[in-house]
């Protein structure tokens, strides 16, 4: 009986926490979002990350210096130093221009500058909010990826 009551209290606690966070969003209180930037000389590409384990594991590794390469003439890729989480990840995703993703089988981050078809193993991390046109300038060069304030 006591075990059941503790269990019920624990469930209630987590449900209430979810309601508080939802209520904050409803009432216009902004919950802190993960934003990052890729520095390309004087220019920067701004990215808003989704709140999921994969995105958080990338955010926790910042700042980074990474080599960005073109792949398949539709995406720019880089390899973070540590593997990103795939916890609770969907089976796949259909990326659009500006989407930032993880390709889980290879462990690389891919930023799409062209729409692409549904791909198994692709996990959406977020999207480019500014500077998508700069992606064409990224080719076989080392850039800095940092948290944006």
Automatic annotation (TrEMBL):
Matching SUPFAM superfamilies: Cyclophilin-like (SSF50891)
Any coiled-coil regions, as ranges: none
InterPro entries in the record: Cyclophilin-like, Cyclophilin-like_dom_sf
Residue ranges of domain Cyclophilin-like in the record: 40-141
Superkingdom field: Bacteria
UniProt-listed Pfam families: Cyclophil_like2
Protein name: Exported protein
Species of provenance: Halobacteriovorax marinus (strain ATCC BAA-682 / DSM 15412 / SJ)
